[in-house]
Amino acid sequence: MDSATKDEMQPSLLPGSSCPGPEWPEQERAEQLARGAALKWASGIFYRPEQLARLGQYRSREVQRTCSLEARIKSVVQSYLEGVKTGVWQLAQAFEAVQGTREALDQAHGLLQGMAEATETLKPLREQVAQHKQLQVLSQLLPRLRAVPAAVAHTRTLIGAQRLLEAYVCLRELEQLQEETWAPLGGLELPVFEGLGPLAEALGQAVEAAAGVAGRLAREDPALLVAAVRVAEVDARHTTSLELPPRDWRRRCLQALQEGLERTHFGTPLLLEPGALAGWLEALRVALPAELATAEALVAPCCPPHYKVVRLWAHTLHSGLRRCLQQLLEGPKLGAADAFALLHWTLHVYLGPEMMGSLELGPEADVSQLEPLLTPENIEQLEAMFVTQIQVNVAQWLQKALDGEVAEWNREQEPGTDSSGFYHSPLPAIVLQILEENIRVTSLVSESLQRRVHGMALSELGTFLRSSSVSVLQPDGAASGDLAPVEAGLDELQRRICRLVLEALLAELQPLFEALPSRRWLSSPELLDDVCERTVRFCQDFRRVRNPAVQLLLAEAERTVVLQYLRALMQGRLVCRGADERIQAAQRLQNDAAQLRELFLGLGLEESVQCAPVLLSLRDLLNLRDPMLLGLEVAGLRQKFPDVSEDHVSALLDLRGDVSREQRLAALSSLQAGPQPSLSAGHRALFSLVPVPTPALSSCLPSGPCA
């Protein structure tokens, strides 16, 4: 492009206009700095005089440099001005283009406003078109829509006739027609389809009803069960464009299977009469395995494999039974028989080979890993309930048995005897047999229940006499100390019986001992002969009693006679008048001791347990000739009989009749001299059971109990 053309394209300046450069403060400052730098440089160069000769050279060189810089500055300024001119020209061109675009946009805006007004005028036309399309669809579907009410009624008829598959096909056709009309009509719901919701619910209820009686249908009408399950499965895979809540017929079908099974076996509240629980459990023992066998053989082939029918049946029956038993335990208190039956059934029968552990049932029927029918708390409750009621029943029965036994022994005729001629009562053997049977039966349930009943049996045995048969109730491995409470109770009972028996003997002997001792007693054995005769006659019935009870009765009878003899001696009825009477009294004591020994040996009492030898010790005290030696004799008496007291010794010294006060005090002091004897384990009290009249104060020691 030549310069003429370029000048034409560039904008020309108006006449008289100028483009003066702007005033720059920086330029002035730059000039000042340049002048200062030049002055500094010149002062440095021309500081020495010899350099002034070269001033012309410096001047010419600086002139050349200045001209070069000015040329370069002019070139740059010229280039800058040309660029400014070009930019101004381009801005003018762009301004003209913007103006044209603005005008075009204004025109387009006006056109758009006109089109919007036209669109508003076309809106009714669009609505007419949409209505026309809907009418066109309705006109095409009108024959099928007219048939909808009849199809709904026909589907209800099929449901009522339990033709579930056909009913489902009809329902799907109606729902498909609803989908075909729903989209073209913009989601508009036609009144003709309002009955489809209740119709589908009726079909779902029919499916649930069929599933609820699956066991019966599997035997009587398996086709209906298969149809119900197929409807639930097909509907589970069906999708729809309609905005409807999911029907979830598969879940409802499975739930109906479980509820129907529970309703069949555990639907009615369990209200059983006392003792009837065992029959109900026995019925379950037969019914539940049969139900599982039916599920495996008949119901499972009618259902898809993923239903796992046998497992579903087993778990449903288990949970229903567990809930039923929990409700039973929350109700009225069970009797002993019902508690025992429930414990035995749940712990041993339910999981045993007769029921859920049967080899005929597959592994799917295993319920051993589920929650147990009874919790540990339930088992504890039932065991405590059983033991408490059994204890009450045993106590009542024992009381009635004892009342009957008392009535039997109080009859006029002689009690029954065994083959050996001893009095015999079958009551202890019967009681032990019953208690042993209860313990043995509880071993069928659990070891804890057996321990509880065993403890109860031992506590109840405290009311019966000792028997060597008690050992049969002691379980293997149990400590011998378990029978200690029973033995103590039986010993106490035997002592009470002995006291009751000997009270009658005592009533016969007391009048005879009123005349002893006396001078008639000194010269004749007649008084003791009467005592022995009464005693022999009273103890004749003891021959019908077995050992060791007969030994206990004879020992207590002999002890009673000796105690009455000692009691009579301590009453102070006789005082010897001289040595001859003391010798007679000592001889009488020796003869009486021998007579009593022979009497009870003849009755069968062992000599080692007899108390009559105490009379020989008293004989020695009376037979002593030197009263100064009484202290030694009294000390010997104290060693043999630790329970002898000062009062007893004083009474015996009174019987001698020749003891002075000093001698008495010396003899009594020997009781406290030396070590006091200790009571041995086998010692039988004698003197401590013999009362003594209060002696005169003159005969007491200052430190004695009578002082």
Automatic annotation (TrEMBL):
Keywords associated with the record: Exocytosis
Gene Ontology CC entries for this record: exocyst
Composition bias, Low complexity: 11-21
GO biological process terms, semicolon-separated: exocyst localization; exocytosis
Disordered: region residues: 1-28
GO MF annotation, one: SNARE binding
Recorded family membership: Belongs to the SEC6 family.
PANTHER family: EXOCYST COMPLEX COMPONENT 3-LIKE PROTEIN, EXOCYST COMPLEX COMPONENT SEC6-RELATED
Protein name: Exocyst complex component 3-like
Species of the source: Lynx pardinus (Iberian lynx)
